[in-house]
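Data availability (excerpt). The following record was deposited with the supplementary files.
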Amino acid sequence: MAQQSILGRIGQLARANINALIDAAEDPEKMLDQMVRDYTTNIAEAEDAVAQTIGNLRLLEEDHREALENAQEWGVKALAASRKGDELRAAGDTAGADRFDSLAKVALQRQLDAEGQVAAFEPQIAAQAEVVERLKTGLERMRGKLSELTAKRNELVARAKMAEAQTRVHDAVRSIDLMDPTSEVSRFEDKVRREEARVLGQQELEASSLDAQFEALEDEGERREVEARLAALKKGTGPPAISGDR
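Predicted structure:
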């Protein structure tokens, strides 16, 4: 995976507006679950890429260090060969002096080559180090987004479960209101009261009928008394005496 591609994906994911995505989603919970999976996968890939980039940087740094050591080593060798050539020349050994001067030149050339490698590695190391820092920063932002996603997802699931529970309670309460057992008791009580009232009415009716019968008996007694007195008048015996008890 190319570094620019990695940086582009990290930047895109890190800049994602989670709230806006949730608002636009038909099923936010499923969308967040998918995003958590995507972020987890991308973070794992980014971690591998960052690790590889860091490894490449460490190799460049190692090559730079070796080139620098080589330059220093060839410089020491060039100095030693030059000094030996000077000693031989002072002793009158021109041929030997020329040979060591030639060795000094070879060492100096190797030193220049090593210094060239050192110079070439330095901008590469700087560029690679910058990429590593950007990747690390982006990776941390992705991890932060993953934490935010996970928290949003957990919050949403909890709220959805709470809303579902509230809906069930509301439906239960509504069904209780529609089928209120107290209303059934009230209707039964009304029925009992009506039955009690009917019984009272029958009792009152029966009582009034009995009174009427007794009144009828009394009226019959009086009628007979009147007839007897009338008969007595006609016989000339006069009305019967009224007793003091009456």
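Summary of structural features: The two ends are 134 Å apart (CA to CA).
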